[in-house]
Amino acid sequence: MRIYKTTRRDLPLGQKTHLVGILNLTPDSFSDGGDFIDLDAATLHFHAMVEAGAEVIDIGGESTRPGHIPVPVGEEIARVVPFIEKIRPHTEALISIDTSKAEVAAAALAAGADIVNDVWGAQRDPQMPEVIGRSGAACILMHNRPAEEAGLGDVMEAIQTFLQRSIDLMKGAGVREDAIMLDPGLGFGKSYEENWEIMRRLPELVALGYPVLLGASRKSMIAKLLDLKDPKARLSGTLATTALGVRAGVDFIRVHDVRENRECADVLDHCLRFP
């Protein structure tokens, strides 16, 4: 049986779709900025997402939306570490830390996080592979590139080349192969057309043999297609991407609206994975 291995527990692959709930402890994230900067509100939302069916909660202390203002390391740590320390004794859910800074990752892992979700595939901070390897943590490696490179060349070829470099860095740092997950990075250095091309070609990424995470929830590709300015009005479009992802063989879906996406994935799993 294929697994995604974390130090806390293993997640089986191919039997059901796993949901990753989004918890932004930021004032400026594109969809829910400011909603959960209070620790009590964040705690309630964390538990609500777990209750609704999320097995991993992805915690971020810096917005990665286009045009975001970079956050100093110390401030990012101050946003995420107290919350992880507060929630860790009260949950068995897996916690991922959404950061591309090695110092933040190290502090979050020490506080009780299980997974590092790096939107630059561990290629932005040269210390990141060592931090992940030394800790024994699992990782999510996302494809990213400068906005000006969007639309240049074959997007899936670029994604696979980039992610292979990330995989090599992880293995070189001692990270187990079954602790690696890949993310094509919808919305990061891609044109509108490329985002939808990735959706159509997800099986090519799945074929690499690693678990794949799909993160389309409430993104601008849905907004543009459906002409929806309010991010929280993009649920129907998000559910369609979840269904497409499950059908393509994606094992993890990163979402804001857990209950609705859990129900969508359960129906697809029942039809396609034959539990």
Keywords:
alpha/beta; 42% helix; 275 residues; TIM Barrel; 8-stranded parallel sheet
What is the number of independent domains? 1
Helix proportion: 40-55%
CATH topology: TIM Barrel
Tell me the series of helices and strands, N- to C-terminal: EEEHEHEHEHEHEHHEHHEH
Task: Provide the CATH top-level class.
Answer: Alpha Beta
Instruction: Assign the structural class, choosing from mainly alpha, mainly beta, alpha/beta, alpha+beta, or little secondary structure.
Output: alpha/beta
What Rg do the Cα atoms give? 17 Å
Please give the order of strands in the largest beta sheet.
Answer: 8-7-6-5-4-3-10-9
Terminal Cα separation, in Å? 14 Å
- Extended strand count: 10
Major sheet details: 8 strands, parallel
> How much strand?
15-25%
Average residue-wise pLDDT: 93
Low-pLDDT residue intervals, each spanning 5 or more residues = 29-34
- Second CATH tier, the architecture: Alpha-Beta Barrel
Form type: globular
Describe this structure in words.
The chain has one domain: TIM Barrel. Helices cover 42% and strands 15% of the residues. The chain contains 10 helices and 10 strands. Helix 2 runs parallel beside helix 3, helix 3 packs parallel to helix 4 and helix 9 runs parallel beside helix 10.
How would you sum up this structure in a few lines?
The protein is an alpha/beta fold and 275 residues long. It has ten helices and ten strands.
